[in-house]
Structure formats: structure tokens, C-alpha cells
Design brief:
Blueprint: H1 16-23, E1 26-27, H2 34-39, H3 50-72, H4 74-85, H5 89-122, H6 130-143, H7 148-160, H8 189-196, H9 200-221, H10 248-271, H11 274-298, E2 307-308, H12 315-319, H13 330-334, H14 343-348, H15 357-368, H16 379-389, E3 399-400, E4 412-413, H17 427-430
Parallel strand pairs: 1-4
Antiparallel strand pairs: 2-3
Helix pairs in contact: 3-5, 4-5, 5-6, 5-11, 6-10, 9-11, 10-11
């Protein structure tokens, strides 16, 4: 018998796939080759259709416009409803707020979808025509205030070094040394308690800041990015160490586009009001950042998923250090174009269009076997679990796992000579 919707335990449990990974406490890195994975995918799934992609973009735009039109009618809808029901003034305010909440949720979902479509353009995955991908990506990403070319460059670097602690660009975990914790062999439970334990309220506060502002802070000054870059590193700075000298003009073009969007918002505020733009654009924009940070964080941050250093990493191992999650079910599939549902396949084949990735996922599952990571844990609980249990990693080791606030990891790696593998990558596969 299913539990009622108000029973929180219905949404707070570890998925069976997560439990299965926990039971495999000793981790053996995969020794698959990229050729094995590549050979499992039918050739037609690599084909891109500009018209099919434009259909998805057009459908998404139409839904977003419909949500906007609904929002502009909220005051009229509230008056009509309250006149029909004979509502008091207090009830009228509640009805209006409920309708705005409804708009903010769905428009934030839609804004997130614009970002995911722009992400596809950054991988040249929507069209076989290069300039078409760039034109669409520039518009889609600029609309949600993401510098298209700048983010495209660093995101592609992330794919070339996924979960490699020296090479990956994003979500770098803090280490035991960063937290000034004693060495593992001498640290006591009191050491961990004094240094990293915190109240649930403070954890929630940090979580809210990261969810709503974390992505923009990363773009502005490399927050949670690779610590190898110097202070002042920014996606908006053409001279940043994130980029090569030949990227300069592209970064400037992204900055000009963002400046144009900000000018548009400023003009909109001038001709209407800040409150109007706040309700119609800025609130769903902030909530969209929450969704973006949520699924990008969960794609790679999990107590059962490894990070690598040095010779422990290969392209295949990095691609498999990610997780497929059915984030928000049909909402994630339709509005976010399966960006969380088929993320493992995306890491192997970044230029495959999103509408072909479900078939790619099914094709490679038999090859990946137990190394294919899927997690049906309810999304919000999975986010809380990762935020509270993925606290730090050890500063040394070729293969490491997150440790929790008590200094314990769910899995451990034991080196075996049979697990040593030459890194076999192909520009054709991950570029």
C-alpha cells in the first residue's frame, strides 16, 4: 500500500541502487576501454537533425511564453475568482500568492530548460551546422545570464577531466588539510565534531546560498572551481587562466551579450517597475539556478562515487564517475531534456543530441555492467544526503571517496596491479 503524499518518509529513503553500491564497499575501478563502449552504440544515434532540434527549442519557447502570459493575467484571474467565490481581502492575497508561486515554479523549470538547451549547443549537439549551435547557444544562455562561450570552454574542459582532482573544473571537494583536520590515523571523533559538525539550520542556510547563488559565484570568481587558478579568476575576464589567448574574442562576445541582456532588464525596469521585473523574470531566474546547481551537483557528488588523481584516472573512469538520476520524473525528461536522466551516456558521447541519449543509455548498459551508476533516491533527499555526507576527501591517494562529518567513507579503494590501465581517449568521442 502506497504512503500518503504528506508522509515525509515517502520522500526520504536511499534508492536500492545506492544501497547496492554501498554493499560493494571495496571499490574496483573499471578497466573498460572506450572502444568497447563506442562499439555498442548504433551509428544512427550519432546523427543530428537541425529541424528536430529547432522543434524542441520552439516547443520550449512556446511553453515559456504561455507561462509568461499566464503571469500577466494573474491580477485579473484573482479578481474574477474572488468575485465568483465572494472571497475576503485576506483570501484574495492568498489566491494571488498561490498563483504567483505556481508561475514561479513552472517558469523556473522553463528557464532551466533554456540553459540545458544552451548546454547542448555548447557541445555542438543540436545541429551539424557549427554556426547554428553557436547562434542558438548564445541566445539561450544569454537569456538566463550565462556567458555562452566562456562557460562552453570550461565545461568542455570538465568533460576532458571529469572527477580528476588536478584537471576537472568544477565542484572540487575540500580536503582534510583544507579543514585543518589532524591526520587520519590520529584524528578522534572530537576532532571531527569540533571542526566540521554543524547544526541542521546552519547546514540548510549554506545549502540555500549555494543553490541560489553558487553558479553565478562560480562564474564571477571561480567559487568551488579548480583551486589551481589564481585569485581573480573569472568567466567574464578574457585574460583569465581559464582560457587560451585565442579564446579572447569569444569571451568578449559573451560579455557583450550579457551586457546587452542586463541593459534590456534595466530598460524593462525603467519602463515598468522593479517589482514587475522581479516577479516576471528575476524570481524564476533565481529558482532556475537552484535547479541547475541541484542536478549538476548530484551528477558527480555522491558518497559512493570516486574522485581520482594522477595515474588512477582514465577517460572511461571519469565518465563513469557520474550518476543517472530520474530528477523530477517527467519534468526533468520533458523540460530539462533528460540532462540528469542520461548523464552517463552524455559523458561518453557529448555530441549525441539529447533526444537520442535514452537509446544510447540502453545500448551501453550491458557493456558497463555494475559500473553503470543509477540512483532512484528521491531528488531532494539525495541532495540533502550529498550535502551532509560529502564533506571532505583525503589529500592523497589515486582513488578517494567523500568522507562524512565523522570522518568515515562508505567505500574504499585497494590497489591491484590488474586494475592498472592506460588512459585511452579519443577527441572524436569527448569533443
Amino acid at each position: 500500500m502506497s504512503q500518503p503524499w504528506w508522509n515525509l518518509s515517502r520522500y526520504c529513503y536511499d534508492g536500492p541502487e545506492y544501497e547496492a553500491r554501498k554493499r560493494r564497499a571495496i571499490f574496483e575501478p573499471p578497466v573498460l576501454s572506450i572502444k568497447e563502449v563506442h562499439a555498442a552504440v548504433p551509428r544512427h544515434l550519432f546523427e543530428k537533425s537541425t529541424w528536430k532540434s529547432l522543434f524542441y527549442v520552439g516547443r520550449h519557447l512556446a511553453l515559456s511564453i504561455a507561462f509568461y502570459v499566464f503571469a500577466t493575467r494573474i491580477d485579473d484571474l484573482t479578481r474574477s475568482f474572488c468575485a465568483f467565490c465572494g472571497c475576503a481581502d485576506q483570501a484574495r492575497a492568498l489566491v494571488s500568492f498561490a498563483l504567483w508561486i505556481n508561475y514561479w515554479f513552472w517558469q523556473s523549470v522553463s528557464f532551466t530548460g533554456f540553459w540545458t538547451l544552451g548546454h547542448e549547443c555548447g557541445h555542438d549537439a543540436l545541429s551539424p551546422v557549427g554556426w547554428m549551435n553557436h547562434a542558438l547557444g548564445m541566445v539561450l544562455h544569454t537569456f538566463v545570464l550565462t556567458p555562452y562561450f566562456a562557460w562552453r570552454i570550461t565545461h568542455r574542459s570538465h568533460h576532458k577531466g571529469t572527477n580528476h582532482l588536478e584537471r576537472d573544473e568544477t565542484y572540487h571537494p575540500v580536503t582534510r588539510k583544507d579543514l585543518k583536520l589532524p591526520d587520519e590515523n590520529v584524528a578522534t571523533s572530537m576532532d571531527y565534531k569540533e571542526m566540521i559538525e554543524e547544526t541542521p539550520a546552519f547546514t540548510l542556510f549554506k545549502m540555500v546560498i549555494r543553490q541560489f547563488l553558487g553558479f553565478q559565484l562560480y562564474l564571477l570568481h571561480n567559487r568551488k572551481g579548480n583551486p589551481k587558478y589564481p585569485p581573480g579568476t573569472s568567466h567574464y575576464k578574457p585574460s583569465s587562466k581559464l582560457f587560451k589567448p585565442e579564446d579572447r574574442n569569444a569571451i568578449i562576445a559573451s560579455d557583450i551579450a550579457i551586457g546587452t541582456m542586463l541593459a534590456f532588464l534595466g530598460t524593462w525596469i525603467h519602463w515598468t517597475s522593479f517589482g514587475n521585473v522581479w516577479r516576471l523574470y528575476l524570481v524564476p531566474w533565481l529558482w532556475a539556478h537552484n535547479w541547475i546547481v541541484m542536478f549538476t551537483y548530484l551528477q558527480h557528488s555522491d558518497p559512493t562515487i570516486p574522485y581520482y588523481r594522477g595515474r588512477g584516472w582514465t577517460f572511461v573512469r571519469g565518465a563513469l564517475a557520474t550518476i543517472d538520476r530520474p530528477v523530477f520524473g517527467w519534468i526533468g525528461r520533458i523540460f530539462w531534456h533528460g540532462i540528469a536522466h542520461d548523464h552517463v551516456a552524455h559523458h561518453f558521447f557529448v555530441s549525441v543530441p539529447f533526444y537520442n541519449l535514452p537509446a544510447v543509455t540502453e545500448a551501453i548498459k550491458p557493456v558497463l555492467g555494475e559500473h553503470y551508476n543509477y540512483d532512484s533516491t528521491p531528488t531532494i533527499y539525495a541532495l540533502w544526503r550529498a550535502f551532509t555526507q560529502c564533506v571532505f576527501i583525503e589529500p592523497e591517494g589515486d582513488v578517494v571517496f567523500f568522507k562524512n562529518q565523522q570522518g568515515k567513507a562508505l567505500r574504499e579503494y585497494k590497489f591491484s596491479a590488474a586494475q592498472s590501465q592506460t588512459n585511452t581517449t579519443s577527441e572524436e568521442v569527448f569533443e
